[in-house]
Specification:
homodimer; about 325 residues; alpha/beta; 434 Repressor (Amino-terminal Domain); Rossmann fold; 3 domains; six-stranded parallel β-sheet; 12 helices; 12 strands; about 45% helix; DNA-binding
DNA sequence: CTCCATTCGGAAAGCGGTTTCCAGTATGCC
DNA sequence: GGCATACTGGAAACCGCTTTCCGAATGGAG
């Protein structure tokens, strides 16, 4: 392993000078020395030891990202945005997937803290269990006390900077759009009750209906994934329009309906939430609520990195946009 | 920041003892001391500084993964598998996305080398340009010389352990299956000529047709993504069956055909390659060649981590399996 | 009771950088 | 010419943890 010392010796300069030349420093080095060092580094094939650098500097150039599941296109898009932004700052991204286990979320924060990553990004819905949330907060606070930066994508419950999608309002807007098409009897594939994102969307939808004087929707709980949608939609009774609280569930619902010979949108309308990219080519194309996922990921990076140590955490609202497509049709 | 020294002092033991207790060591520590140290660590909220640990040990516990694009479900599945396997070894995964730029692939290897990651996983198709490949090899060799482990998912061109999917054979097998259904006139949406994965699949398909005495397929080049499939399929002339060299392109092709009112599979059959999970609910469901992506990601981790320093790199072949679904229909 | 083999705690030397503090030289100004 | 003022290079003190090497203590065997 070629070390900085090897380079310094080879170039006939001190360690300090070599360091200043090769790893950005505020001080500059004379042209002669600089060139000698650069040449030696190239000849020897020197590569900075980031671990040593991190130790000496007390700060790494890695950002930690905690997601539920990378295979879920929602998180893939978020991660992609975050990685692009991180790269612009010269950082790399370390990813931890919790597979929806809140305990592992806590464990990852601890691990990332040990890594002394520059910032931690937490994404995915919070859960209603206050104990879990408070234990996560403790872990995050510990991290922040030692200078760590944190941002969250989701609900503002962690006392940290948050990118907060307007789940409630988006779902409400969707409800109004669907009602405007003449639908009055709705079912909501609401996901698990303990996931706040799911609950917010479901509640926002129901509230908007109530505001319009329409009957309460039929609410069906189940898992937050494709199979959850598949199962839940089977229990729908008498609705003309089904709202799945995320696109992945909507896909499951479409599959189930198709397999039972129910035509969408002729027999029933279906809408989702998120506007997942790879799902755009579905037939019928899915009515949904668009969230700028990649952008949110990038914003989270900026939010975490910006601001001073003691600043009050900021909450950045993210607007959603209803996108009407083929899976919904106007009622006569 | 609480350091190990703080813990040692608080517990009234030496640094060495504290280290042995808190960060796995081959030597064990007496019960009394051990408990004292553990208690102090808990009280003070000690968290190992992994950078220091990495420096002292000369080896980190992170694995670097280089992918083309996380949003592409192919890589998301691969990454997921790799992350699960890494976690089983107590490692974390650092991801770099190249967005299909070979230069960035090289740059990432260099960065990951600087990070002294335990292993580097390179995934995604190699390119035909020998210069790019050899520069990547140089970078990888440099890394391996300093003790780094490398594994590759794709073509065995880097002189490192490789998980090698049977692209050629899989495509050939697909061709034979489609021919068995009566198709004789094929078009191949072949992707870019410089991507070896694309070229292999295209070639394997054509070879199998030749072996059956069937006419050569119409070969249409274009980008390796959804839009590439969308565009390329427009040029198909006179084929009864279209083979897109990956599923994502097939999705684009389906979309284009639908928008032109061409029915699949009634008017034309379509097949893809990879068997991407989130695409399973497409209508019509896609005939494709299944690759066990998550498993391949996990295997890559094992392959990189296993074996001794000087071992001859192993090549692990991965079999594919043809999956016939609705997007293809038998020809009268 | 002595002696040897273990076991266990501690001191200290790194691991590979960064950065502060010093000193020497060159420059600017009166 | 004399002196204050940048610049620039180098010595050395860390950053926090691991691990080797020692010495002391413990326990079993003879």
């Amino acid at each position: 392993m070629v070390t900085l010392e090897d380079v310094a010796r080879h170039a006939g300069v001190s360690l300090a000078t070599a360091s200043r030349v090769l790893n950005g420093s505020s001080r500059n080095v004379g042209r002669t020395m600089r060139e000698r060092v650069e040449k030696s580094a190239a000849v020897l094939g020197y590569r900075t030891n980031v671990a040593a650098q991190t130790l000496a500097r007390g700060a790494s150039n890695v950002i930690g990202l905690v997601v539920h599941d990378l295979v879920d296109p929602y998180f893939a898009a978020l991660a992609d945005g975050a990685m692009r932004a991180a790269e612009a700052h010269g950082h790399m991204v370390m990813v931890g997937t919790t597979h929806r286990d809140p305990e592992r979320e806590i464990a990852y924060v601890s691990t990332l803290n040990a890594q002394r990553v520059r910032a931690v990004l937490i994404s995915g819905s919070r859960v209603t269990d206050p104990d879990v949330t408070s234990r996560l907060r403790v872990e995050l606070d510990r991290y922040r006390e030692s200078g760590g930066r944190v941002a969250c994508v989701g609900q503002d419950l962690l006392g940290v900077g948050t990118i907060a999608p307007a789940n409630r309002e988006g779902a409400a807007e969707l409800a109004r759009s669907l009602a405007a098409l003449g639908h009055t009897r709705f079912a909501v594939l609401a996901g698990p009750p303990h996931l706040i994102t799911a609950a917010d969307r479901s509640a926002g939808f129901a509230e908007a209906l109530a505001g319009l004087g329409l009957p309460e929707p039929q609410v069906i709980h189940g898992p937050f994934d494709r199979d959850g949608g598949y199962e839940a939609v089977q229990e729908v009774a008498g609705a003309t329009c089904v709202f799945a609280v995320n696109d992945v569930m909507a896909v499951g619902a479409l599959a189930a309906l198709r397999s039972r010979g129910v035509r969408v949108p002729d027999d029933i309308s279906v809408a989702g939430f998120d506007d997942i990219g790879p799902l755009r080519d579905l037939t019928p194309s899915l009515t949904t609520v668009r969230l700028p996922l990649a952008e949110m990921g990038a914003q989270a990076v900026e939010l975490a990195l910006s601001g001073e140590e003691g600043d009050e955490p900021r909450v950045v609202p993210v607007e959603c946009e209803v996108v009407l497509r083929e899976s919904v049709r106007p009622l006569a």
